[in-house]
Amino acid sequence: MRQRESGILVLRVGLAEIDFLLFEKEPTGVHIVSCGSENISHFMVRQTLEKIFCQLPKTKNIQELVATFPESQFNAQVIQQVLPPILPRHLIDKAEASLIEKDACARASRIFQKSLFQESGILPSEFSLRKVKILDRKIDGYPVLKLDGFKRGEIVFSILGMFLLEPQFLPVEQFAKSHGIGDIRVIHITEAIESFAKKRNQEGVYLCVEEGRTQIVVQKEGHIAFLDSIPMGDGAFTEFFGDMLGMRESTAEAFQQQYFQGNLSMPALGKVEAYLLPEIKKFGTLVKEKLLGAKMALPNSIWIFGRARALRNIQDILNAEELRDLPFLQKPETRFLLPKEIWEMKDSSVPDDPTYTILCLLGASSES
Asked: What's the N-to-C CA distance of the chain in angstroms?
């Protein structure tokens, strides 16, 4: 019997849809086997996953599953911890450095849990801590890659923590086990952005548009420098199409796709853009307010991806005039981050659609 070829299945389990992508690593690049989306409004998550599995080629053996979830279910936060200097000043050895960082991560974990409960009201027992990661270290204001070998002064850590709502993960875990997929990885989109930006040396402001929110990640000087979100996402635009144009949700989704690809007549395109302008300006204002709170010089690239098809002409709206109050290092440039910019693909089976960028970022992150 011919051995089945191995592949990696990437999932974004959203609030109303599951996006999926099956790919293979090859010496000459990445081969996309299958991709698409399935609505979960009439099914449970597990049932929808089984429906997706039936669409995948039976000649492929899924050896690994990579999954992510929206911000309301998979939360990431960045905090700073300041440790005062200890006198007399002395050189930090490896054992002390390890103990300092271990204690800092433990304190950060408790802070994350308390913050999460205060913001969401969900008990800490409902969330699992997926990762606590030190992003940046400074001693007396100077960045250092490690603590050992330096004199003990004021230490400042920037720490990333990620919590996942466990009931959302359970059906994914059950699905993987039922199909013999032993390697399950849960990756936050923030991690995937950081991995991609480091590989490409591509600093920037990254806007990941989800159903109900948009995550804002600032990648600067080799690490995540700022992380926040705004309470506006694709749902606001879908509702807008429904209210203004009298469309059902499914029709509005398809219409947004046509709009993003520029497949409407010029009169229809102009009419939609005029209708959308107030909503897009509102989106831009919310992003601007959050970035002002970052209190740092910003890299000059703004990358937009995710469920962002309604933001087709945001490059023209988020111009220098709109962003002039923000401390960009240079005149900012706003662009869509598309799948073809993440991977060198042997084929073009992935649509030129920012929705699939999330899956490509996750897939690329899983390779590292």
From this structure: 32
- Cα separation, 326 vs 160, whole angstroms: 24
| The model's pTM | 0.89
- Rg of the chain's alpha carbons, rounded to an integer? 22
Secondary structure of residue 32 in the 3-state scheme: strand
Contact 350, 35 (CB under 8 A): yes
Torsion sign over Cα 218, 219, 220, 224: positive
Question: For 302-352, what is each residue's pLDDT tens digit?
Answer: 999 998 877 777 766 666 566 778 888 888 888 999 998 998 766 666 777
What is the rounded distance in angstroms from the CA atom of residue 365 to the CA atom of residue 24? Answer: 14
pLDDT tens by residue, 10-19: 999 998 899 9
In contact, 105 and 134? CB cutoff 8 Å: yes
C-alpha 199/C-alpha 220 separation (Å) is: 13
- Is the model's pLDDT at 1 over the cut of 50? no
Across the strands, what pairs with 206?
A: 217, 303
- Residue 145's SS3 state is coil
DSSP 151: B
Q: Do residues 27 and 46 make contact, with C-beta atoms less than 8 angstroms apart?
A: no
Q: Is 206 helix (H, G, I), strand (E, B) or coil?
A: strand
Could you tell me the two tokens for 320?
A: 């220098």
d(CA 228, CA 122): 19
- Give the residue carrying structure tokens 């229809």: 268
Nearest to 223 by CA among 158, 127, 300: 158
Name the average pLDDT for the chain.
Answer: 87
DSSP 309: G
| Sheet of strand 29-39, all strands in order from the earlier edge strand to the far edge | 29-39, 17-26, 5-13, 60-68, 183-186
